[in-house]
Specification:
The chain has about 725 residues and is of the alpha+beta class. The protein has 19 helices and 27 strands. Among the domains are: about 300 residues; about 180 residues, no CATH class. α8 runs antiparallel to α14 and α12 packs across α14. The C terminus is likely disordered. One of its GO terms (cellular component) is anaphase-promoting complex.
Length: about 725
């Protein structure tokens, strides 16, 4: 993906294909405020939301089909309820502490939340006004994502591969153009296009509720991402060096030829101050005084980093998640407003419980870190002195002091952590598990190697003996055998499950209002690269009319057809469809030919609600004849006399089979056109707000940018960018 500034074609950034995101970009869409670009990748079936300033993925998600078209629209509907919601300060900002930024020194995955100002997350959430990213894919796949992040509808029942989509700005209807492969004719494979109009009135009638629910959902999605990244940072803070103790001791067991256990060897050193020759060799030759010091420092720095991350990031993220889920549960209990959208209180209750279990597990990890830090400190301090004595070095008097309490502490540590476990060797390839923190951060389904010891814990005993509390919904379930990663995955699964239901319910409420077969194309007729631009859909926000532009080739001339329909299914716009031909307006070009149909349309786009921009070529194409870029005002197309020539659509036939009866208009463009010199133009992309058009050549190598509304009578200013590669 390459992003260029329009004014001088300076490259802002490029995002090369990579293994994680994918390699084949098939669709792009800008968020209506222009701050985020979404693109779909077909090989990995992922959607990436990218910041306009720098090529960084702010959010990504997977879909079930490869995406062929994307459309990102904004709701323009106004109502007093919505206005008050838009203007109200988000309560969570007042009630919840600000999420601390993730530390910068970890890998790039955490970039989005590592900016000091957490406005990255606000940039991702964007404006409160609802906007929706509509995705269309192969085999009838259509999904609608609120704010580009949260799925609010999965639409079913549309046949074919999506070539165009348009959701009206009042959310009342969704127009879709699909391409259906049809090889029954025995000719070259044919495809025909059909336009379906889907009624999405559930979304529009519950607009305030949908907006509020979607806003909550996006908060929850970003918090899950924050927790995921905090955990990634914790895994990075845990280093492999911490495993050294386990592997050295395992090697020692394998090589020694005495019958004493490792635990006894260390106990003897503790009690008598003397070590066997083998233990001496392990400590002095393999571990070394220097190595022991380094190991002690690593454990301390690593554990304190993990501890900080748990306290400041994991816990604050989980508490915010709990807050938003509880709010969502309150919404779900307001049944008259939210039940018909599929919000389900019992599912949200389960999600709250899962977050509770995750918080419990994070607390357990904190206790394990705390006790491990104390134990290791005392153990290393004692072992350091013992090793200095072995090497007959001078021991500083302050290191030499060891109280009875310290000795008991080390003895307890040896008893608990240094017992050999042969069954562990088969599982993990080691006999010991001295280091207890790493097991919580492993992303695997195995149970913990050394789960915490809950014997003698009064609360556990009390729970076991109480019949009422065992099943109480107020107590979060506790998984003593499982790792933090496992509990996090389980929590994500439950939350996804509970947030999935509205998408299914809203999707099922969408039904087809109109379905029309448009036309067939044969594969052979067009050898130019297929950059499917036509058919093109446009939504006129002020009058809520959907327009469809497409061309049908007849007698080697491509006429352009304009189909228009009102988004409100009950109202019909009188003149549903018109065909346009372009008359001869370059007087000198074909004076000898009297045929008025001189031009074929290659591509067409709505420039704004009143104008269509077209690329034309002469139908009798001769060498040296240039192509033309023209502006076509709709006012010259829809005139009063068309009201008489109403076209009666026969739904049993395709449109191209009844094209003879469609009212046809011959357009003579006055002055809003220019010749595209030295360029075999094929496609056009326009932006009426910025008053520019971009024309792309048929070999997809040359781009020209035109300013469309230049007042000066002189030469039109033109910027040109040619790519030679």
């Amino acid at each position: 993906v390459l992003l260029h500034r329009l004014a001088n074609f300076q490259r802002v950034w490029s995002l090369p294909p990579n293994e994680n995101t994918g390699k084949e970009v098939t669709a792009l869409a800008w968020r209506p405020d222009g701050k985020i670009l979404a693109f779909g990748l077909s090989d990995t079936k992922r959607i990436i939301l990218c910041d306009v300033e720098k090529p960084e993925s702010l959010h990504s998600f997977s879909v079930d089909s490869s995406i062929t078209y994307m459309h990102w629209m904004e709701v323009t509907e106004e109502s007093s309820v919505l206005t008050s919601f838009y203007n109200a300060e988000d309560e969570s900002n007042l009630l919840l502490p600000k999420l601390p930024a993730l530390p910068k020194n970890y890998s790039t995955t955490a970039k989005i939340f590592s900016e000091e100002k957490s406005d990255e997350i606000m940039k991702l959430l964007g404006d409160v006004r609802l906007n929706a990213l509509v995705l269309g894919g192969s085999s009838g796949f259509i999904e609608i994502y609120a704010y580009g992040m949260f799925k609010i509808a999965t639409v079913t029942g549309v046949a074919g591969s999506c070539r165009g989509l348009c959701l009206s700005s009042d959310l009342k209807s969704l127009s879709v153009i699909t391409e259906i492969q049809d090889s029954s004719d025995g000719e070259a494979e044919m495809t025909y296009f059909q336009a379906s109009k889907l009624d999405t009135s559930l979304l529009s009638s519950y607009l305030p509720e949908v907006t509020r629910m979607a806003r909550k959902f996006t908060h929850i999605s970003t918090l899950l991402q924050y927790i995921r990244l905090s955990l990634t940072c914790m895994c990075e803070a845990w280093e492999e060096i911490l495993m050294q103790m386990d592997s050295r001791l395992t090697k020692f067991v394998q090589e020694k030829n005495t019958t004493t256990s490792v635990q006894d060897e260390f106990m003897q050193l503790l009690l008598w101050g003397k070590a066997s020759l083998e233990l001496q060799a392990l400590l002095m030759n393999q571990l070394t005084v220097k190595g022991l010091k380094k190991l002690g420092q690593s454990i301390e720095s690593s554990y304190s980093s993990i501890q900080k991350l748990v306290i400041s990031h994991l816990q604050s993220g989980s508490e915010a998640l709990l807050y938003h889920l509880s709010e969502l549960k309150g919404m779900a209990l307001w049944k008259q407003k939210y039940e018909s959208l599929g919000l389900d209180a019992s599912g949200i209750e389960e999600a709250i419980t899962a977050v509770g279990s995750f918080i419990l597990k994070a607390n357990e990890l904190l206790q394990v870190i705390d006790s491990s830090m104390k134990n290791f400190k005392a153990f290393f301090r004692w072992l350091y002195v013992a090793m200095l004595r072995m090497s007959e070095d001078h021991v500083l008097p302050e290191l030499n002091k060891m109280t009875q309490k310290d000795i008991t502490f080390v003895a307890d540590f040896l008893t608990e952590h240094f017992n050999e476990a042969p069954e562990l060797y088969n599982r993990k390839g080691k006999y010991f598990n001295v280091e207890r923190v790493g097991q919580y951060l492993k992303d695997e389904d195995d149970d913990l190697v050394s789960p915490p010891n809950t014997e003698g814990n009064q609360w556990f005993n009390f729970l076991k003996s109480s019949t009422h509390l065992k099943e109480s919904p107020l107590l979060f379930p506790y998984y003593p055998e499982k790792s933090l990663h496992f509990v996090k995955r389980q929590m994500e699964g439950v939350i996804d499950q509970c947030l999935q239901k509205p998408a299914d319910v809203i999707g099922k409420s969408v039904h087809q209002a109109v379905c029309m077969s448009l036309y067939k194309t044969s594969q052979s007729e067009d050898s130019t690269p297929q950059l499917f631009k036509l058919p093109f859909l446009w939504n006129d926000k002020t009058s809520n009319i959907h327009y469809v532009l497409f061309t049908i080739l007849e007698n080697s001339v491509s006429k352009i057809y304009i189909l228009r329909r009102h988004t409100d299914t009950s109202r019909s716009v009188s003149n549903g469809i018109l065909a346009l031909e372009f008359g001869n307006f370059l007087n000198n070009s074909i004076s000898e030919s009297s045929d008025s149909r001189c031009y074929s349309c290659l591509d067409a786009h709505f420039y704004d609600d009143e104008t269509v921009t077209v690329v034309l070529k002469e139908s009798v194409e001769q060498e040296g004849k240039e192509r033309i870029l023209a502006q076509l005002p709709l006012s010259s197309v829809y005139t009063d006399e068309d009201q008489d020539r109403e076209f009666i659509w026969d739904c049993t036939k395709r449109l191209d089979e009844q094209s003879g009866e469609i009212p046809t208009h011959t357009v003579f463009l006055e002055n809003q056109w220019r010749v595209l010199e030295n360029m075999k133009a094929q496609y056009v992309a326009v932006n009426g707000i910025r008053k520019v058009s971009c024309v792309l050549s048929s070999n997809l190598r040359h781009v020209r940018v035109f300013e469309m509304d230049v007042e000066d009578d002189g030469e039109v200013e033109e910027e040109e960018e040619e790519e030679i590669t």
